[in-house]
Amino acid sequence: MKTLNYSHTLLPYIPFFYVIWSDDLLSASEIEVVKKTVSEDDGLTATDRKILLSWLDKKHPPKNEEIKHWQQLISKSGVTLIESETYPLEAFSQKVAAFYSHTEVKNSNLRNIEINLGIQPNHYSYLFHVDVVHQVSATTYDAKEIDSIFNHAHRGEIENIRTFLQDPIFEWGVHRPKEQARKRVLEQLKALANEGWGALAYPKAYGGKGSLEAYAVIFEYLMFVDGSLAIKFGVQFGLFGGSVQSLGTQKHHDAYLKQTGEAQLLGCFAMTETGHGSNVRGIKTTATYVHQDRHLVIHTPGKNDNKEYIGNAMDSKMASVFAQLIVNGKNQGVHAVLVPLRDEKHQTLPGIRVEDNGYKLGLNGVDNGKIWFNQVQVPVANLLDKYGSIDANGHYQSAIKNPNKRFFTMLGTLVGGRICVAKGALAGAKMALTIAIKHALKRRQFNDSIKIQEDLLMDYPSHQLRLIPKVATSYVYHTVLQRAMEVYANGQTDKRKIETQVAGLKAVITWFATDTIQECREACGGKGYLLENRIADLKNDTDIFTTFEGDNTVLLQLAAKGVLSDFKSELNSDGFVGVLKLLSSRLTDKLATINPAYSNKVDKDHLYNPKFHLHAMDFRLRRLTDSAAMRIRGYIKKGIPSYQAFLKVQTHLLQVGRAYSDVLAVKWYYDFVAQQPNEPYQKLLRQMGALHSLSIIREHATWYLEEGYLGSTKSKAIRQRVERLSTELRPHINTLVDGYGIPEKLLTAPIAS
Amino acid sequence: MKTLNYSHTLLPYIPFFYVIWSDDLLSASEIEVVKKTVSEDDGLTATDRKILLSWLDKKHPPKNEEIKHWQQLISKSGVTLIESETYPLEAFSQKVAAFYSHTEVKNSNLRNIEINLGIQPNHYSYLFHVDVVHQVSATTYDAKEIDSIFNHAHRGEIENIRTFLQDPIFEWGVHRPKEQARKRVLEQLKALANEGWGALAYPKAYGGKGSLEAYAVIFEYLMFVDGSLAIKFGVQFGLFGGSVQSLGTQKHHDAYLKQTGEAQLLGCFAMTETGHGSNVRGIKTTATYVHQDRHLVIHTPGKNDNKEYIGNAMDSKMASVFAQLIVNGKNQGVHAVLVPLRDEKHQTLPGIRVEDNGYKLGLNGVDNGKIWFNQVQVPVANLLDKYGSIDANGHYQSAIKNPNKRFFTMLGTLVGGRICVAKGALAGAKMALTIAIKHALKRRQFNDSIKIQEDLLMDYPSHQLRLIPKVATSYVYHTVLQRAMEVYANGQTDKRKIETQVAGLKAVITWFATDTIQECREACGGKGYLLENRIADLKNDTDIFTTFEGDNTVLLQLAAKGVLSDFKSELNSDGFVGVLKLLSSRLTDKLATINPAYSNKVDKDHLYNPKFHLHAMDFRLRRLTDSAAMRIRGYIKKGIPSYQAFLKVQTHLLQVGRAYSDVLAVKWYYDFVAQQPNEPYQKLLRQMGALHSLSIIREHATWYLEEGYLGSTKSKAIRQRVERLSTELRPHINTLVDGYGIPEKLLTAPIAS
């Protein structure tokens, strides 16, 4: 093999140049890195340097024959590539150079290129016809460190719950008949309550720690046990207990909160009706006040007015019933009333009828039921009266005069539940990703005809692209939900604002979970279809998360209306018109036209820059909001009623809601990254941020191209960068899924072990 | 109310102009329609005509104040809009005009506009503040006629199976323990076999009708009963029986085919192994020929080499086992051998081990299992020897000399199965769409504050957009699968070509089903989550369709490789290189640059024109194929091994496979439409074709914009047209889902009744 007379100092550069030119992603900044290294390498002769620099001219790239010669030179050296070396390409190159020059070659300049270009063995090992000592996973990062970065707050609770859930009572198993599954979940619920986990969010006086945040943090771990357990837990302690805590006053707390936290009193949250799910304000159940002996009559008036899908309905002794409160013949709007359902022998009380909702797609360990009330009397003291009460004279009293505002204040208690639902969905996605990725790191299929061993699934580009961006997104959403709960629990912001934020995030994150778990199921092929591998249950259990605690389509419109009314105006449609006038003039000024140089800027530094990501997200939100407002105004000016005008732009509003959630997630994530002191990990976090952001931009590339924000070249470059970043994160992917901190004992899927 | 002095002849035009201008979709051809009507209306004065024509100038549209005045004029007339009138807007307009002019107004010119612009009550009824007598569904089309258009071939069998499935044995129910579900499905299978349904595809001599097409046609209906029944049926009669029929010779037919068709002999198709699913050629089970007493030894060599997910494994007496055939120490490649599994008492035979695969996400009525063979001896006669046999001297013989070609010929028998899987998936999607749409035509939620009744879900634009395009696509795919089966069954084309076609179609259609059923579940909210409403089972049962009978990702690559090799070259990677050289020169010539006038042509006539749809699809396929070929060539020229070069463009190849399937579907669909003699129905079919095609183009709009095929304006116009077409089909949507012809008795979902 002749080496085209390359000198022994130039020779170690050959594998580097081969790797660089076999790909098409060399950006200006990357060329600079190589140029600098070559210029500063004192071992090179002037001729060598000239040759090397000539190979960096993108306009006159090395000829294919030359590149092919490099490939043969490398392959025929017989040198083995060892991926576990600290600088594998440097070490490999030196050995190749030594082979041809018959002298030891040392050149530590090379690692500059290797480090700064982020060249990893999985980028190039397949380019050479050489033996490779493979590594399934790099050791650059430590999963424990990632876990501690992302799960820093309430660390004590996290470690305790991780340990506690190793109790055999939480072991996974198949329980097909619903009665069996429900029995098991109820036992698990009680075990948690006994250890004080149920009461976490309640005040200390009632056995809790007064920490809604800690409650939300541990909620995630219950999903790893069983979706039904998480939901049963959420209904009992979060929804039922939460309604007593947030809508009730001290008399209710004293009477019920401790028992509820201990699961001595089981309760349900009876809001949804067969005829009214999304439109809570339209529910038909009535609570009519009778002054004579100061009681309330709870009644189901019509055929479809019964409560439905009420979790914990079969086990509960009491329900927090949402009903239209009628006082002196006047409807004061929706209020919650505590209604006993069953006696000590668990017989339903007079006037109460409960029916099992039967089998569902998933969550069959949760006892959902329908409830009818036939003129059921309860004392007026059972009215959860924090925001509205009936005084001794039988007059309705409320500190919030506006009935609309009162309604939304009461519904505000659902915000915590929405965050938990999103957390639960995300936990499901994390678990499915862990299983699919661990499987792909073991499973091999197909090979080059030369090799004996087949290729790992994880080394297929299509497999990387389907799973790795989702891991990045899962980390983004993890930090975002933590912040949302922090903001909500500590009342750090205007209530309406956090409601808008959570409405959007809940929709986007639960949809992300549905997509991700589906992708994981398919990525595991037939194995993913077996119940024992857990993805099936995660898929079925989380499926309803896009519907309950607010249907996603409705929530995105809620978020959009929040954006349109600039978080200030009231949410009824009439209130909008005034705001819109203001809005459309205000926004248009701020929208700069996009410079063509910007819309075609494809440099890596630019594409990976958080500023670009935030700018792109923000541009989308502003432009969409502006155009929605303009369209609505246009219709209204032509005499179309405002309700109908909003309906005409409904699909547009969904896009506004989504854009809003995208901005929020990326912004909060980068805030989080900026706070991390550990530089190497900060780099990893930035890579994930870039992958997430570019994936989102890519998803909406049609819109960006239509608006001229992206030019063709940039749009294509973003696609290539998404693929490249996925490949760059490939060596760390096992560490990243371990970083979720899912207790090994709960990860029972045989394909993941 | 003053009427701005509009004459009584001009007055009836007002509602028309209000409807036209309250929307933004007026195209040049539509303006022509109105102009023509106005010009030909002899009742108008010259002044009227001038005013009306001035209102058609898109550059100087009527002022908002004027439009608003029209709206008030209409609303204050107090006239009720009756949707069931033949020409509701004409009738309404005349009444409004009569109210203000105090004289009877008749103007039958108006209906020209109403008909030619396709203006329907659901476009405009909400624009006026008037009382509306609503229609849930229009009566323009007849569901029976649609059914007969789409289900014309094998009509006798269709009607018979629809009737037969009303037998109580096919009634839907919840069977949670798998043993119960399997027992039920086995009984149903036998009931079908008793009536001759199982043998349909076999020759008459064995109890059949020799019609694979009829078999495929009725397969769809089994999905409406239960996914497990369809799969069990497919395994027994299609895969096991099919392998005997297609890979065996007369001795096998005589011995087994009749019994198989009658379900007297239950059999399974043992191809997939734990370690080898997609890579069938790499399976490890061996069938070693021993010449001494002419037998074959079937053996499972290693840990992951057992058969897995084998449907019918627990019930079968015999298996069609795929194994590497070793004759005289030489591996002759994969062949199928009939291996008895159990004796008459259903005890497994010596050397055979079968294990239940346990619970799965869905299809729990199918008994999937794992099978191990420990040196199991069978006579050499059990080799299914149509394509390869062992002669009396112990020499291997095959008419197909090339082992590669032989392998693909044997696998070709899977093509029929793939068509059936796609048909099954599509049937699942149809059933879910029917349920979701019937629910949306009853379910109401939210309203304008003025109205008492809430709005129908089906009248929300977002709901129309999520469901209606999928109905259009379902009809497109229905015709396409019928043609694929016709081509395959009658050997109308080169075998390799139909394999490529079916590979792509199976992937695209099963993914469509997964997306559609998910969308339907969410569109039904909590109701969609209940098992009784059927969507849950459809979702879980069809989920694996994207994986089995060929993983979709693998199949799309297979399709892409078929495209690249122009259906002629062999499918091993070495064979490609030569073809690629040819390909890249050939294709580039044919790709014309896109004229800017074309890339911004937004006229309705153009956007709805099948020629545009086909051109767009074809352009995408050609350009993607060309660029994939160029990239692969580029890598190979740089010395990258061809296997790795293909891997580098893997995600690109998936796009080629998808583009190929899109072209095929649209082309075949329009061929079908062209054959329909009934003009009004042809129009409906063309509307569905346009909606399907524009949805596909919209889905890939990023790519079209990047390539300059679409300009921004056209891209946006396509989005608007997708929304508009959905609204246009809204009145016919109930008729369209009824047109699927799903037997009412099988449509047991309470929300659909």
Task: Write up what this structure looks like.
Chains A, B: Its main location: other. Chains A, B: InterPro entries: ACOX_C_alpha1, Acyl-CoA_Oxase/DH_mid-dom, Acyl-CoA_Oxase/DH_mid-dom_sf, Acyl-CoA_oxidase, Acyl-CoA_oxidase_C, AcylCo_DH-like_C, AcylCoA_DH/ox_N, AcylCoA_DH/ox_N_sf. Chains A, B: Residues 159-259 form the Acyl-CoA dehydrogenase/oxidase N-terminal domain. Chains A, B: It comes from Croceitalea dokdonensis DOKDO 023. Two copies of one chain form a homodimer. With 753 residues, the first copy, chain A, is of the alpha/beta class. The first copy, chain A, has three domains: 13-133, no CATH class; 269-411, Beta Barrel (Butyryl-CoA Dehydrogenase, subunit A, domain 2); 415-746, Butyryl-CoA Dehydrogenase, subunit A, domain 3. Chain A contains 30 helices and 13 strands. In chain A, the strands form four sheets. In chain A, strands 3, 4, 5, 7, 8 and 11 form a six-stranded mixed β-sheet that branches. In chain A, strand 12 and strand 13 form a beta hairpin. Chain A is elongated. Chain A starts with 12 loop residues before the first helix and ends in a 15-residue tail after the last helix. The model of chain A is unreliable at 567-575 (pLDDT under 50). Chains A and B meet through helix 4, helix 16, helix 17, helix 18 and helix 19 of A and helix 4, helix 16, helix 17, helix 18 and helix 19 of B.
